[in-house]
Structure formats: C-alpha cells, structure tokens
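Example 9 (inverse folding). The structure is encoded as follows.
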C-alpha cells in the first residue's frame, strides 16, 4: 500500500493539477497566475513539474496562447473531476467543522415588543 501511494503521489501533485487547469482555462501563464493568486514563474514551474512527472507535454505554447495537446485533452476531464471532488471534500469538511448544533435559548419581554409594534 505504501509503495502504491508513493508511486501515485510522485505522479500527481494537486497544486500542479490545479495549475494545469488554470492554464488550460486562461490560456496564459499570467492569467492562470492571477486566478490562483501566485506568480507567473510559479505557474511555469508547476506546469513543468507536472509534465516532467507525466513524461509528456500537456499544454503547447502557441502564438494564440497555451493550447491542450492530445494528451492534455485526455487529462482535462480527469483533472476537472479531481477539482470537483476536492471542492466537495472541502465543503463537506467545512460544513461539518462549523455546523451549529444544540439548543438555543432566548428570553424576551413580550409586553415590550407588543407596545413597540403597536
């Protein structure tokens, strides 16, 4: 189990996948960097790291910006599903972490409210 995890982990780093998605959507390193709140050099480094681990290009730089390679197109759907699952996990954890529970007690002077309303 540990070996399997290490092998998968070596191939996929969520930050790199998020960067891939952002570049694919923005079609530029600068636009993707703005979207994720990082530097353009960080985007470039993450893309390079992901492509190095994959052993192939996922995005090709063209005069019109970055475009998906055939492999990038194949990876895109999986990366979007990873993103959706990551968002779902985040919402689940946040919802459970801050969910209010218990009894709420409140005391009021109904006569005072009735006079102010009338």
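The amino acid assigned to each position is listed next.
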């Amino acid at each position: 189990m540990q070996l399997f995890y290490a092998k998968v982990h070596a191939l996929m780093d969520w930050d790199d996948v998020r960067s891939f998605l952002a570049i694919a959507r923005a079609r530029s390193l600068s636009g993707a960097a703005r979207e994720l709140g990082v530097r353009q050099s960080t985007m470039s480094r993450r893309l390079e790291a992901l492509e190095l681990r994959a052993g192939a290009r996922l995005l090709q730089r063209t005069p019109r910006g970055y475009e998906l390679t055939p492999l990038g197109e194949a990876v895109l759907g999986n990366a979007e599903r990873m993103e959706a699952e990551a968002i779902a996990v985040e919402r689940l954890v946040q919802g459970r972490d801050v969910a209010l529970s218990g009894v709420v007690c409140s005391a009021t002077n109904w006569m005072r409210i009735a006079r102010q309303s009338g």
